[in-house]
Amino acid sequence: MNLKITTLAVALAASLSLSAHAEDLMDIYKEALQKDTQVAQAKANADAAHAGLTEATAALLPQIDVVGSLTKTRTNTIKAYNACGSNKNSSAALTLSQQIWRHSSWANRSIAEKNATLKDLAYADAQQSLILRVSNAYFNVLNAADTLKFQKANNAALKRQLAEAERRLNVGLIAETDKLEAQAAYDLSSAAVIAAENALINSYEQIRVLTGRQITVEQLSKLDENKFDTPRVDKDLAKLVKGAEENNLSLQQQVVNRDIAKDNITLARSGHEPTLDLNANLRTGYTDYTSNVPEASFVDNNAWSKSVGLTLSVPIFHGGATSAAVDKAQAQYIAASESLEYAHRSLLTNVNNSYNNVNAAISSVTAYKNSVKSSESALKATKAGYDVGTRTMTDVLNATQKLYDSMQKSAESRYNYIESRLALLYAEGDLKVEHINQINSGLKK
Fold this sequence. Notes:
- This protein has helices at about 1-20, 25-35, 35-60, 105-170, 175-210, 235-245, 250-270, 320-385, 395-430, 435-440; strands at about 65-75, 85-100, 275-290, 300-315.
- The model is unreliable at about 1-20 (pLDDT under 50).
- It is α+β, with helices and mostly antiparallel strands.
- The relative contact order is 0.14.
- Helix 3 (about 35-60) runs antiparallel to helix 4 (about 105-170), helix 4 packs antiparallel against helix 7 (about 250-270) and helix 8 (about 320-385) packs antiparallel against helix 9.
C-alpha cells in the first residue's frame, strides 16, 4: 500500500514539474537557433566566403618574399696534385611583385565579393526559415495531439454506442444489423486512433531534427483558445507583392547569382587581354673556397645585386580554350537569368497562395467553430430521435463522427491560420523573432 502511495506521489510530482516547466515556442526556437544544422552550415559558408574575399583581395596587393640558401661542396682530384677543397655558397634575396594590370584578378575579387554577399543572404534566409520551420514543427505536434484527442473521444463515444446497441439487442429492442453497424464504426475508429498515435510520434521527429533532442507534446505549451484571434492581413495584395520583390531573401540570392554569372563572363574574356607585372629583387651572395694545395687560390667573394623590371604577357593562341570559356560563361549567365525569372514567378505564386490561404483560414476558423455547435445540437437531436424510434443507429453513429470531425478540423484550422500567416511573412522577407513573441502570448502559461 505504501509503495502504491509513493508511486502515485512521484507520478503526481513529475506531472506538476512537467507542467511548471512546459516549453513554449520561443524556448524551442532559441534551442534550435543554437543547434540547427542548416543555420550552422549557412554561417560556416558565409565565414568561408568572407575568407575567400580576403584571399581574392590579397592577389591585388604587393607580394613580398625572402629567399635564402646555403650550400657546401667538397671536391677531390686524384691526378696531378691529389688535391681536395671545399666550396661554401650562401645567398639571400628579397623579392617583390605587384600586379599592374591583370583584369582576371579584379574579376575574381568582384566574384568573391558577390559570393560573400550571396552567402550572407543565405545565412539570413536560413535564420528566417528556421522561424518558419520551428513554428510548423511545434504546431504540427499540437495538431497531431489534438487529432489523437478527438479520435480517442470519438472512439470512446462509439464504444458506448456499441455497448448500448448490445444491451438493446439483448432485450430485443433493435435488430442485429444495428449492433453490427455500431461494431463496424467502433472498429474503424480504433484503427483511426492507432494512425493518430503514430502520426503524433512521427511529429516529434520534426522537432528532434531542429534541436537534436526528443520532445513530447506534454512538454509543450498549448494554444489558448480564449486568446486566439484571426486578424486579417493589414496590406493589400499589391503591396505584399511589391514588398516581397524588394525583400524576399531567396529572390535576392538569385539576383546575386545572376550578377556572379555576369562577372564570370568578364573573367573568361580577360583571358584575351595582356597582363603587366612589376618585379623587383635585392640579392646578396657569399662564396668561400679553400684548398689543401698551396698553389690553389683562396676565394672570398661577397656580392650584391638589384633589379627592377616589368613583365608583359600577351596571349596569342591557347587552342581555343579562352573562346570556349567565354561561350560557357555566357550560357551560364542565360541559365542564371532564367533561374531568376523562375524564382520571381514562384515568389508571386507563393505570395498569392499564402495571402489566399490566410483569408481562407480566417473563414475556416469561424465556419468550423459554428460547425462544432451545430454538430453538437444535431447529435443531441439524433439521439433523442433514436430513443423514440424515428432515427436509426446509423444516424447516431454518423452524427457522432461528424461532431468529433468538426472538433478536429476546428482545432486544425487555428494551426493552419498561424502557419499561413508565417508563410506569408516569410514570402515577404519580413519574418522576425518578434513574431514568435506574438504567438507566444497566445499560448497557455
